[in-house]
Predict the 3D structure of the following.
Amino acid sequence: DTVLHQAARASLDRLARDLKQIHVALPPEYGKPEFNDDPHEYRLVGDQADVGIADFDQLRFASLAHISFEGDPRLGIARIVYYPSELTPDNWVLRRADHLYPYPEFEPNDTDPILCENLLEFKLTYYDEEGDENDRWDTESDDHDFSSPRSIGIRLKTGTEDRSVTLQTRVDLPVYRQPLEEDE
């Protein structure tokens, strides 16, 4: 279906543009967090969305791809969150939250723009420096030595169970943080 394909393609294109303008704190600006430190404001966190459906992920990151919807002329590094939201029972959408500093605590909001309707799947795969696949990522975690992924795979399925479109892409990140050594 052409309309479904165009909507899914537009959503993937927006996410890819946002990721191509990602902002990652690098050493010496970034140092390994100490016990009880607040997480870094430019962290990337990708995990399963907390909506009880296994096929929906959520992604938070910092990017220079800020879009103002209230006419705010400021530019800067935005905290962007892609997340699923239920419009009506069994009718999911993909939303995009976008906030400039000071970053509010993320809360799903019905006023966040909808990028894709009739969402059936939103899955992300994170690739490390060796090309290994990971289904979760947190740049503030020692699971990946406080590094950022080198690329992110995106799988988006939209439509109905009877008629759907699935698109996939992989975005190489233009900036990434190497794994930190023990003394950093």
